[in-house]
């Protein structure tokens, strides 16, 4: 996908998130220290750095990484984390009164996918560091021409060494929000449309 198209995708999703969340994940101009990474086609590291086993009985319940395209791991991968709660994602509305982790599942059986995604990226950046996680939109392997449910809306890391911890964070958030649906993690290279945090602030 061309950077200009991906930028539009991110902008469309970001506009649906509450103002406070949008302020946290708003795109920034890449600092000089990382701007050379724009166009980095493949993730850093190696898939073997992921040690969480798909289908494990303890810890996060995840799928095996899904590859996309004909270039193997270099094109990136997508991993689903399974939820075990009573609530489900709603792909048709923006944030509302029910879109909070403490909401009663009887009165609020659904959660905005974009509200949840905004919470996940905040948690990921708090755990991994602001320069190591981004994304709130079309995920690796997603179908851009389909409905939001086919977009693989996910958070994103660019290095396999962060995958285990990112999966744990997503699992924690699914449990905190009492969600029974899957949410994804994309592992990909850097695209010029992806916001990069200024590492000089860390």
What does this structure look like?
The chain contains four helices and seven strands; from the N terminus they run ααββββαββαβ. It is of the alpha/beta class. The strands form two sheets. It has a five-stranded mixed β-sheet with strand order 1-2-7-6-5. Strands 3-4 form a two-stranded parallel ribbon. α2 packs across α3 and α3 packs across α4. The chain is globular.
Please name the defining characteristics of this protein.
about 200 residues, alpha/beta, 5-stranded mixed β-sheet, 7 strands, about 25% helix
Fold blueprint:
Blueprint: H1 3-14, H2 19-25, E1 66-67, E2 77-81, E3 88-90, E4 110-112, H3 113-128, E5 134-137, E6 154-157, H4 163-176, E7 183-187
Parallel strand pairs: 3-4, 6-7
Antiparallel strand pairs: 1-2, 2-7, 5-6
Helix pairs in contact: 2-3, 3-4
What is the count of β-strands?
7
**Unreliable stretches:** 1-35, 193-202
Major sheet description: 5 strands, mixed
Which percent bin holds the helix content? 10-25%
Mean pLDDT: 77
Alpha carbon gyration radius: 16 Å
* Approximate strand percentage: 5-15%
Backbone shape: globular
- Give the SSE string: HHEEEEHEEHE
Helix and strand composition category: alpha/beta
Q: Roughly how many Å apart are the termini?
A: 31 Å
- What is the spatial order of strands in the main beta sheet? 1-2-7-6-5
Number of helices: 4
């Amino acid at each position: 996908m061309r950077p200009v198209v991906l930028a539009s995708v991110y902008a469309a999703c970001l506009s649906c998130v509450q103002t406070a969340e949008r302020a946290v994940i708003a795109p920034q101009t890449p600092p000089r220290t990382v701007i050379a990474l724009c166009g980095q086609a493949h993730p850093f590291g190696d898939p073997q750095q992921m040690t969480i086993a798909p289908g494990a009985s303890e810890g996060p319940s995840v799928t095996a990484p899904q590859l996309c395209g004909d270039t193997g791991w270099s094109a990136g991968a997508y991993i689903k984390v399974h939820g075990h709660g009573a609530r489900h994602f709603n792909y048709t509305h923006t944030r509302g009164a029910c879109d909070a982790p403490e909401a009663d599942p009887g009165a609020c059986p659904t959660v905005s996918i974009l509200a949840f995604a905004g919470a996940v990226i905040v948690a990921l950046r708090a755990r991994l560091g602001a320069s190591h996680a981004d994304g709130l939109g079309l995920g690796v392997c997603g179908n851009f021409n389909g409905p939001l449910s086919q977009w693989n809306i996910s958070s994103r890391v660019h290095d396999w060494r962060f995958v285990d911890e990112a999966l744990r964070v997503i699992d924690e958030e699914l449990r905190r929000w009492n969600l029974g649906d899957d949410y994804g993690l994309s592992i990909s290279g850097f695209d010029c449309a992806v916001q990069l945090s200024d590492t000089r602030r860390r």
